[in-house]
Amino acid sequence: MKIISNPLELKEYLKENKKTVGFVPTMGALHEGHISLINRASEENEIVVVSIFVNPTQFLEGEDLDKYPSREEADKKICSFAGVDILFFPNADDIYTSDEVTLQAPNVRGYVLEGLSRPGHFSGVLTVVMKLLNIVSPTRAYFGKKDAQQINLIMLMVKQLFMSVEIVPIDTVRESDGLALSSRNIYLNKYDREEALKISASLHVCSRMVSRNILDSCEIIDSMRETLYPLEVIYVEILNRDFEKLEQVEIGNSIVLVEAISGETRLLDNIWL
Ligand code: AMP
To answer: What contacts 134, CB < 8 A, 6 or more positions away?
Structure first.
């Protein structure tokens, strides 16, 4: 596995490449969720590039940028073991200068749900993803459905800016008790982790109701909120795949999203129905 930190060196290295490239952007502290993206990229492409970059522009003032988990050596081993060909590991000043051209997340879709509680977060995400895609020029790029709003906005960016990469959504990987894997789960103490299970449990309540043909969004959301109690709920929403509110679940076109705080940790989860 080759490790590169300089963007221009990586671009140069890939310049004459005629093979298909699968790209997996991450912020490190890798877990089975990231590995499932890497495995899929390996299945579908001749070369796999993973980036590890904790992107400062997607963190708001007072968020966990400085304490975001970092496991450099373990991450390198995981990537090498998973068959990654190139690990891109830049520093912040390899990616950003002091006066920058930036992308602006769309005013509606970028500022609802997570974008409402973290205004500007998705502008930072889109800017860094655009930079990374321009550096790697992948055939395909892999993102988790767990960050549903993120992947939705990235797909919108690719479409609206006429980019040629294919964005591949990957199912959420969970612990055996249902908790969605996240690098931030290490912030949870034993009690908070137990409480956090209410998030996946609430989604389970939703899928059970839908399987009994209860499709009314208000009714489902009420039951989900009961299951989530006493977690601090940021939102529970039932949306279509264009991120518009649905009064009724539409099978094949719905995403049910939850964001809640357990202890001090914001946790996201969702199911695609
Ligand atoms: P992160 O390092 O948290 O920025 O995540 C990097 C990529 O991994 C993103 O596309 C995430 O959506 C994806 N990801 C994170 N957690 C999971 C999970 N539990 N299952 C599948 N993909 C995930």
So the answer is: none
**212 CA to middle of ligand 1, Å?**
31
Question: How much distance in Å is there from the Cα of 147 to the middle of ligand 1?
Answer: 7
Which atom number of ligand 1 is nearest to the Cα of residue 34? 8
Tell me what the mean pLDDT of segment 132-157 comes to: 98
Which residue's CA lies nearest to atom 10 of ligand 1?
143
Tokens of 189: 């103490």
Residues whose beta carbon lies within 6 Å of some atom of ligand 1: 26-27, 33-34, 36-37, 143-144, 146-147, 170, 172-173, 180-183
pLDDT digits (tens, 9 = 90+) for 210-247: 999 999 999 999 999 999 999 999 999 999 999 999 99
The 10s digit of each residue's pLDDT in 171-223 is 999 999 999 999 999 999 999 999 999 999 999 999 999 999 999 999 999 99
- For residues 122 and 110, the answer to whether their CB atoms sit within 8 Å is yes
Q: Residue 36 has what DSSP assignment?
A: H
Testing ligand 1's pocket by substitution, the residue of 121, 147, 150, 175 carrying the most ligand atoms inside 8 A of its CB is: 147
Residue 16's pLDDT band, with cuts at 50, 70 and 90, is confident
Q: Taking Cα atoms as reference points, which of 5, 40, 47 lies closest to residue 135?
A: 5
Residue 267's nearest CA partner among 171, 206, 200, 189 is 200
